[in-house]
Amino acid sequence: MTGEGAPAFNPRVVLGLLLFGAIAFAATLYLIGAGETSRGPNDGGSHAAAKGLTGYAAIAEILEAEGHQVSLSRSPGAFDDEALLILTPPLYADGKEIAELIARRRYTGPTLLILPKWFAMEIPEAVPVDKEDGWVVLGGAAKASWIAAFEDQYATELALGELDPAQGPDWRLGDRSGAVPDRERVQTIANATMIPLVTASNGNILVGYYDDGGYYPVLDEAAGLPPADEEDRDASRWNFMIAAEPDLFDNYGMADRERAALAHEIVDLATEGEDLPIVFDLTLNGLGRTQNLLTLAFAPPFLAATLCLALAMIVVAWRAFRRFGPPLAEERAIAFGKRRLVANGAAFVLRTRRLHLLTVPYIETMRQRLATALRLRRSDDETLDRAISTRLPDAPGFAESAEALRQATRPNEILRAARALKSLERKLIR
């Protein structure tokens, strides 16, 4: 039997909770797919997302402000794009990996490799100075030893030392010259099959491109070389440029206007006069990220399926709230009252087939009921048998009937013996 009942919860409250949960769940999926669940890339490293002294965020902003299409790549897929790829690996990079990457890109797009030299660490919280996220303090300097993996025509030998101001400007590119931020620790290229663009006061190369048989008229002109014969060169190959001194490009170096202008000019030369996008790689600095299923779910062509699933969920939720008729309240499976409790208990015993457990309690119950009916003070078997034989000479005794019930094992036997005791009670009460 059923009847109408009031809803247990307010539908508006439930709808609000569902909407809040759905929005929170969608936001969680988006943040996971966008990689926003961890610390940002401004970690004090030597890459274009870092704003510390060794980062390259400043030159990236300068190039973007000058109208270049600049992007920070966290995917290895950008290595195959036709763009100027700027690599800023750390001191402890994998030289073989970088060499293979550069060899793969020779006919894809130009590559500018900025070598590291600084040991840097974020400013500890215990240091009582005004600082921002990602700021670092500089320790020592060291040569990028992994460049030893460059072989054959790209074999390069580095030098790290002090520049003498008496020898002239620290760096020079054509008519442009200037100073480096730290003259005592300057990294240069001492030996390589390289054409210099920017030279140091000691004659070593600060920035240059490899003479690898490619046709680079824009770079040759900037280096002061006569134009090469295009027929003798590989015109489909892009240049590979190395900047040995990172302070000409990093945030430390961008504090000077002349160095900022030099960095901008080097980038323009690396594009060989083409209007190419500029991509700063972050994967070599451990900030790589691949597409996951959550990202793909919100990108074409999977976006259509995601929207259809969202609409289906909305329809199901709406039908759940706009159901036909009021809710039905079911009656209790176990009704209140002693009679119902006894009936349910008896049904449980029957279902479990444990009738033999009721024999002894039933005997004791009948013993008390018979003693009450005969008004006896004692209820032992002998007293009950004497009283029953006086009232009912032909009836069986209590002890005999009780023993028959104790010995019964099958349900029919138990019921037959129980009825005999009950019949004895009815005869006495009659």
Per DSSP E runs of 2 or more residues, the count of β-strands stands at: 15
Uncertain segments of ≥5 residues (pLDDT<50)?
none
What is the count of distinct domains? Answer: 3
Radius of gyration of CA atoms, rounded to a whole number: 46 Å
Q: Please estimate the helix content.
A: 25-40%
Structural class: alpha/beta
How much of the sequence lies in strands comes to: 15-25%
Q: Which strands sit side by side, in order, in the main sheet?
A: 2-14-3-4-13-12-11-8-9
The end-to-end span amounts to: 41 Å
Number of helices: 12
Return the average pLDDT rounded to an integer.
84
- Secondary-structure element series: EHHEEHEEEEEEEEEHEHEHHEHHHHH
Task: Give a verbal description of the structure.
Keywords: Membrane, Transmembrane, Transmembrane helix. This is DUF4350 domain-containing protein. By secondary structure, this protein is α/β, with parallel strands linked by helices. The protein has three domains: 2-29 and 296-330, no CATH class; 41-288, no CATH class; 338-429, no CATH class. It contains twelve helices and 15 strands. The chain has helices at residues 11-34, 57-65, 95-104, 217-222, 257-270, 293-297, 302-321, 338-352, 359-373, 381-391, 398-407, 411-429; strands at 2-4, 70-73, 84-87, 111-114, 118-122, 136-141, 156-161, 171-173, 176-178, 186-192, 194-200, 205-210, 240-243, 278-281, 328-330. A nine-stranded mixed β-sheet has the order 2-14-3-4-13-12-11-8-9. Strands 1-15 form a two-stranded antiparallel ribbon. The chain has a two-stranded antiparallel ribbon with strand order 5-6. A hairpin with a 2-residue loop joins strand 8 and strand 9.
